[in-house]
Amino acid sequence: MGGENMIELHNIKKSYDNETTVIEDINLEIKKGEFVTLLGPSGCGKTTILRMIAGFEIPTEGEILLGGKDISELPPNKRPINTVFQKYALFPHLNVYDNVAFGLKLKKLPKKQQAQKVSKALEMVDLEGFEKRSIDTLSGGQQQRIAIARAIVNEPKVLLLDEPLSALDYKMRKEMQMELKNMHKKLGITFIFVTHDQEEALTMSDKVVVMANGAIQQVGTPEEIYNEPSNVFVADFIGESNIFKGVMSGKFKARFCKAEFTCVDDYAKGTVIDAVIRPEDFVLTKPEEGMITGEILSSDFKGTFYEVSVLCGKNQIAVHSLRTGEAGTRVGLSIEPDNIHIIPYDLSINHYEGSVCREQEGSTLAVSFAGISWNIEPSALFEGAVMSEGVVYDAQGLPIDMSDVSFEASFAPEHADLSDDADEGVVQGNIVSFIYIDDHYSYTVRGLDEEDYIVDDEDLWNQNDFVSIIIPQDKVKYKLL
Ligand code: ADP
Q: Per residue in 29-59, pLDDT tens?
């Protein structure tokens, strides 16, 4: 989509009390007239971004541009931006007219103009003639519309909507979604909408910004986000996904689930991948006709399809199918090549820069990386090296200058484990998110040092659980930088 940018966020960071970083480093462009949705689980930082755009919070770093001009220093009432809040924040003692006209009165606009603007705003939300009604005689949906009328009466360039529909029941919510879309078309202004409901985001937006843990995961149209998720978090969060660990086994060939599949993504042979397959893209077949076979564990009728769980080896696969079978039935599963979405494994996972500590003694080397400090054999960093009385000697017996040695330490998620005993692991933190891959969970733990660690574990932990991470020393690899 072309057009000029209405809002630009440049390298925005936000931390409270100089401590916890809530927003990592966000760059985002929002075009004039666009309907953009910030989507992500609760606590990922959506509202914080909205509040910074509105001016209720000041970014710790970075700038916010509106129409190309820096507005970082402008107070909220000087920004051509209005917000519709989750709790409508209407004044219960004022009638509809006075609620909608509130901002205009503050601006001391002549009475006649006020009346014109209020009636135009009420028309826009389909509540003409409601001027004299008191707020407590209105339904939830009507109150929501009054809140919107109050926000648009100021003719803002940007309307911010912070989970405005979350208090409504399902049917009213669906209706208001359509109404908001129509209103967006009629008004022609930029809408920035916040929700944790992916279906709502996909049905309403021109552009979806998927967020997790204070960072943007992907920006795209609803179709792009659904069909081409850029990482396993997005794949898991948007719709339902089966995620398999695998490897590219040839041109347009991927191996996972103990079988080889033809796919349409081309990555070098040997590339470690995650393969994402939506439940509706599996086809249930007779065992001899399937690309893989398994056994039906359970089958639940969902109105328009059966939700079938199939056990293939150790993998429990979710399948949405029009046909089904009894638990225990052997079945085959087949998949069209273009329904397999390949995501190359992120090679930066669990890679940390480290250094050698200044003070050394004994025969092992004290090193630190991320939030971890421990002692290693010098030969783990320098082949054939030994240490004596604080000095490292190379294989030829010559001393090595340690003053500016830096290295990269890494470990595979499957080699680490979680524990609820803080002393058992080498680093502590909170679980910020997790997804199910193959036959285990993959956890993202944010350490007290604010580094992220990815750990595979078979047990189910909860978000926000405080855990310590056990990393066997001999599973860590070191590479000199
Ligand atoms: P979301 O809107 O995605 O649910 P928020 O932007 O409300 O997320 O919050 C992001 C994180 O910032 C949360 O961990 C929240 O606890 C923290 N947070 C929000 N406001 C404050 C504040 N005033 N002081 C400290 N932490 C805050």
A: 999 999 999 999 988 999 999 999 999 999 9
Q: Give DSSP secondary structure letters for 162-186.
A: ESTTTTS-HHHHHHHHHHHHHHHHH
Please give the model's pTM, rounded to 2 decimal places. Answer: 0.85
- Work out the burial of residue 286: count CB atoms within 10 Å of its CB; fewer than 13 is exposed, 13-18 middle, 19 or more buried: exposed
pLDDT tens digits for 457-480? 999 999 899 999 999 999 999 999
Say which DSSP state 198 is in. H
Residue nearest to atom 20 of ligand 1 (CA): 48
pLDDT value, residue 275: 96
Q: What is the 3-state secondary structure (H, E, C) of 429-475?
A: EEEEEEEEECCEEEEEEEECCCCEEEEEECCCCCCCCEEEEECCHHH
Å from CA of 43 to ligand 1 middle: 6
Buried b (16+ CB within 10 A) or exposed e, 228-246: bbebbbbbbbbbebbbbbb
**61 C-alpha vs ligand 1 centroid, how far in Å?**
17
Measuring from atom 12 of ligand 1, which residue has the nearest CA? 22
Strands (E), 32-150: 35-39, 61-66, 69-70, 81-84
